[in-house]
C-alpha cells in the first residue's frame, strides 16, 4: 500500500536504504540531497514493494505544488522492480493538495498521461567507462580530438575550487547563457555542492588563465554513476577549449572502472552534440506536468 508521509514522518535511514536497493538509484534522490535542495520534502512510500517517491513541494499564491529542484535531473519512483503499473500507481497517489505538478521522472519510468497530464520527453547523454582511456578517446569525434590538441594543456587543470567560486562563474556564464537560474535556486545548489564536497562524493575541477578561473565542472560520483552536474565556461575558457580538456580529464579519471558517466545532458542540440562527440549515447526521461488547478487559475502556473 502506498502511504503519504509528511517530512517529519520520513525515516531518512530507511529511505536511503530503500533507494540503495533500487535497480536504478540516483544520487538526486538521497535524503541529504533532498534536504538541501527542497527543505520540507514529503514522500510516497510502499514498503511492500520497496518503492519510494520524493514529493518536492513549495507554496505560491496559497497553492501547494510539486516542482523539480534546480540541478536534480531525475526523481520520480525508485524500486527494486519498477514496472508501468507501479509507476502509474505512485503518480495517481500524489495527494490532491498538490494542485499543480511539474517534475522530472527518472528514465526507468514510462508513464502514460493521467487525466490530461503532459508527458514531455527530455534527452540525456551517458557513457559507460569499462575501457581504458586510450580506447575511450579513440571513440571521440575528430573535431573533439582536434580541439584537445590545442587550447589549455592538461597541466592547467586544477582542483581545490570552492563552491562559491564555482557558482559565481556558473551564474555569469552558463546560467546566464541559458536564460538564468530560477530565483533563489543558486544558494540551494551551492549548499548541495558544498555538502557533496565535504562528503567526498563531489569534485570541482577547473582551468585558470594565470590566476583567474575561466572554466570548471562539478561532478558527483555515487552508486556506480558519475554525474556531470554543472559546467561553467567564460569567453577565455572557450578560447582555450577548456571544456574539452575538463570533460576529457573526467572521462580519463574514470576509465576502466565501469562507472556510468552521466552528462546530465540536454535537449539543446549544441550541448547534445558536444556530449555525443565524447562517445556518449542518448537516453530519454520524462518531464511530467499535471495541472489540476480550477479554471481560470489553471492558466496562472505557479
Features:
Aminopeptidase, 302 residues, ten-stranded mixed sheet, globular, 2 domains
Q: Could you characterize the architecture of this molecule?
A:
- This protein is α+β, with helices and mostly antiparallel strands.
- The chain has 2 domains: 3-122 and 285-299, Aminopeptidase (3-Layer(aba) Sandwich), CATH 3.40.630; 130-258, Aminopeptidase (3-Layer(aba) Sandwich), CATH 3.40.630.30.
- The chain has 11 helices and 13 strands.
- The protein has a 10-stranded mixed β-sheet, with helices on both faces.
- Strand 10 and strand 11 form a beta hairpin.
- Helix 2 packs antiparallel against helix 8 (185-199) and helix 6 runs antiparallel to helix 8 (185-199).
- The protein is globular.
- The model has no long low-confidence stretch (mean pLDDT 91).
Structure summarized in a few sentences:
By secondary structure, this protein is an alpha+beta fold.
